[in-house]
Amino acid sequence: MSALGRIFQVARREYKHHARSKGFWLTMVAVPVVAVLAGLIPQWVQENKPARAFLVVDQSGGAIEAAIDQAVANDTEKRALSALKDYAADNLPAESVPMLSPLAPARGEITAADLAAFRAWGGVEQARKILPGLAREGAPPFVPPGPRFVRVPAPAGVDLTGDPAAIGAALSPYLRSEKKVQDAAPAYLSGAIIVPPGYDLLKPAAAIQYWSVNINEYDLMTLVEKALTVTAQQAMYREQGMSQEAVDAVAARRVALQGFSPDKAAEGGEVSTKDRLLNIVPLGLALMLWMSIFTVANLLLLGVIEERSNKLIEVLLSSVSAEEFMAGKLLGIAGIGLTILFAWIVVGLLILINGSGPTVQLAYDAIALILSGPYIPAFAFYFVVGYLTIASVFLGLGSVCNSQQEAQSLLTPLVFLLMLPFFLIMPMMEDPNGPIATTVGWIPLYTPFVMMVRLSTNPSWVEVAMSGALTLAFSVLVVWAMARLFRNAVLRTGQPPRLVEVWRMITRREA
Amino acid sequence: MTGSNDKAVAFEGVGKSYGDFRAVEDLTFAVPKGAIYGFLGPNGAGKTTSLRMMLGMIRPTTGMIEVLGSDSAMGVRERVGYLPEERGLYRRMTPVETIVYLARLKGMDGAAARKRALELLERFGLAAFGNTKIEALSKGMAQKVQILGTIAHGPDLVILDEPFSGLDPVNQQVLEELIADLRAEGRTVLFSTHVMQHAERLCDRLVLIARGRLAFEGTLEAARSLMPRVIRLKTRAPRAALGDLPGVASVALEDEAHGRYEIKLADGAEGEALLRACFERGIALESFDMSEPALHDIFVSLVGDGAREADARTGGKAA
Fold it and tell me: Do A193 and A242 reside in the same domain of the chain?
């Protein structure tokens, strides 16, 4: 049998062996599922958080309390409007959505003016009335989200006339959820806002106090702060003699910058959300590259340790040369890596096909972008080079270790070294052709990941070609060195070799 | 000896050094085709190193090795089967898969390898476990599977490193029969052992190494002839009368009360001649025992001191 035949046999066994393992299937299915869940869960939690009860003790007369009520009502309405727009995008045929109605997709943040228009249009009631006639057949009914916050009256028996500290203390059992604040949900108090006597928004003396046991929950605090700030600003404008109309006009005023790029000069230079994908998508690809390589490189390490520790290696090396064995393992495990990658893509596409909404649209744009650029051939090249380098290092490491524990101690610094470019992602993203990104891109070990990220920023082709050639040469060198180490170390028994010995095994002429 | 057709393996001045440490020095011997060849030596003598060089897994520092007419076992690896001393298999593979894999690595095609695996498992009483994962088998069973994996591809040369260790007496017997069968099929079997009884029963020729050097090479008879012949007898005759007999090198009294003596014969002297001389001189014998020296004694006499030294020198196993 030829060397290729033997390599194929080894590769085949590796592939079959790992393809039958539970870990393989888990990795294939779990990673995309976890990725999707990681994206959906925070949103779901945000949307499905039960309403929280709070109370206001306004000792200053009631104006602040009214302003807070208004802010909470606006918040609820804003959420309804936002949900309505999402619902319309998903369930209404595009032609039945009038351009300027509340059903039209949002352009930027929802403003007070948008809210006013929504109210004038008829609000949630109007939506409930007309949506069944407009929505596609089979569309679910529109359910507006409930309020995030519900103001409850102060429980009977709590003295609200003392100073804020005394009131806070009196509310303590309610804030600690030891006592219900009302029978209906939300039954427990999550926060209390205490406005000191004589508080004046325009000339605040003492601060408004926010009492809660959960000091990390800022939602209500932020909402109230923002609303009172606007109220205070408007009151000050009016004090300066501005009419209410003028104040509203000021409040509704928004200034936006439009991004332009010389790279888009042909289309007028305007930069869209789609173009911003140019930054995100290659980063995603680089991450996928790194993950797929790392997931399987570890299999090589564990595999060689198994073969060494149960002495299988000796039987195998009487049939195949160390180099053929190594090549077979690299090939078989690469097959596993590619299968996992393929599965991720398929699962990702399946999720996309069954999804809808703006995120899905964005994903389709991302796919179009990937197909339009040099990303696929680049990914293939960087996968091969990155895989060969990292996988052969893991193999070499396995050939000198007797147990997983031994390997672990050597692996930690190695993984840290290999993860380095990911610590540099932020500066590289901000300035993809700047000194950090350029320098790291030339380090052969990192070239595949860094250049993958930078590819969308049009680095000079000379740089791409030269760094590509360099990383390829480096990869060949590493594979050669690891093959020598593997051949010389894999049959050894006893203590793992010291670094000097490893160096000697790689460099000495006679094996 | 290069190029000779009747040799399965030939070592010519082979040495292997690791830095300053000489694991094997100037080893020269030849394994005739179709023979069962014993590879004997104490722990740390360089047996495994020699076998690994024979298999082309490590390269000798000096000398030449020829295996089945090729200057490297790697060139003829499909005709060689090897069972290493320390054994192991993929725990999550089944015996059938294991044997098929090992045979396919040696160039058999898939269907033939499978057929052969099933045959062998059947013949060695493992048919019922053919599809059980190795990790669920007993150690002895797994070892049998590995031996079957070594011979499944029908190698011309089978190299077994300590094949008997770890097997119970019944399976040791099975293995002895297997080795004899292999010879009957015209294959060459080379095995290392330190259990002399196996070598004694099976080997046509043997090589003895100690401290990395050749201590003996030849047939069992030749090995025996190296030892002084010892005769144990029982007589009422006085010790002096025994000492005067022809061909007697020395007489030792074992048990005075019963008149038991141990007589060492001089080189070339025959036991029969001594027996005849006793009759002629009227020495009444109550018993006369001239059993041949056991390989065990030869082993101890040839490498005994060396073995102790070697252990002290390497502190256990050489690479």
Answer: yes
One domain for residues A25 and A97: no
Claim to verify: residue A237 and residue A322 sit in the same structural domain: no
Nearest CA in chain A to B59: A511
Looking at the domain assignment, is residue A490 inside a domain?
A: yes
Domain count, chain A: 2
Is A1 close to B93, i.e. CB distance below 8 A? Answer: no
Tens digits of residue pLDDT in B178-188? 999 999 999 99
Give the count of Cβ contacts less than 8 A between chain A and B: 69
For every residue of chain B, DSSP letters joined together read -TT-SSEEEEEEEEEEEETTEEEEEEEEEEEETT-EEEEE--TTSSHHHHHHHHTTSS--SEEEEEETTBSSGGGGGGGEEEE-SS----TTS-HHHHHHHHHHHTT--HHHHHHHHHHHHHHTT-GGGTTS-GGGS-HHHHHHHHHHHHHTT--SEEEEESTTTT--HHHHHHHHHHHHHHHHTT-EEEEEES-HHHHHHH-SEEEEEETTEEEEEEEHHHHHHTSPPEEEEEESS-HHHHHTSTTEEEEEEEETTTTEEEEEEPTT--HHHHHHHHHHTT--EEEEE-PPPPHHHHHHHHHHHHHHHHHHHHTS---
- Residue written as token pair 């779901």: A44
Residues of chain A short of pLDDT 50, as ranges, are 511
Interface check for A163 against chain B (CB to CB < 8 A): the answer is no
- Predicted confidence at residue A285, as pLDDT, reads 84
Both A35 and A178 in one domain: the answer is no
- With CA atoms as reference, the chain A residue closest to B86 would be A311
Domains in chain B and their CATH numbers?
A: 7-224 (3.40.50.300), 228-289 (3.30.70.100)
> What is the domain range of residue A182?
51-252
Q: Are residues A80 and A226 located together in one domain of the fold?
A: yes
* Cα three-residue angle A415-A28-A366, rounded to 5 degrees: 85
Distance separating alpha carbons of residues A270 and B161, to the nearest angstrom: 76
Q: How confident is the model at residue B112 (pLDDT cuts 50, 70, 90)?
A: very high
pLDDT attached to residue B196: 78
Confidence tier at B1 by pLDDT (50, 70, 90):
very low
Contacts of A301 (CB under 8 A, 6+ apart): A394, A395, A397, A398, A401, A407, A411
Q: Residues A167, A207: one domain? A: yes
- The ipTM of this complex is 0.76
Of A252, A284, A307, the residue that ends a domain is: A252
A70 touches A103 (CB < 8 A): no
Q: What stretches of A331-438 adopt beta strand conformation (E)?
A: none
| DSSP assignment of B102-136 | HHHHTT--HHHHHHHHHHHHHHTT-GGGTTS-GGG
Q: How do residues A422-432 score in pLDDT, each as one tens digit?
A: 788 788 877 87
What integer is the mean pLDDT of B232-244?
Answer: 83
The DSSP secondary-structure symbol of A269 reads: S
Chain-centroid distance of CA A392 in Å reads: 30
Distance, in Å, from the CA atom of B45 to the CA atom of B90, rounded to the nearest integer, reads 30
Instruction: Looking at the complex, report in whole angstroms how far the Cα of residue B97 sits from the nearest Cα belonging to chain A.
Output: 10
- Distance from the Cα of B172 to chain A's closest Cα (Å) equals 21
Domain end, chosen from A252, A274, A305, is at A252
CA distance A312 to chain B (A): 5
Could you tell me if A101 and A186 lie in one domain? yes
Residue A260 lies in a domain: no
Q: What is the distance between the alpha carbons of residues B117 and B146, in angstroms, rounded to a whole number?
A: 11
Q: Please determine, for residue B238, whether its predicted confidence score (pLDDT) is greater than 60.
A: yes
Do A55 and A189 fall into the same domain? yes
Record: contact A1-B107, CB cut-off 8 A: yes
For B196, how many CA atoms within 13 A lie in the half-sphere containing its CB? 13
Q: What pLDDT is stored for residue A273 in this prediction?
A: 66
- The rounded Cα B33 to chain-centroid distance in angstroms is 16
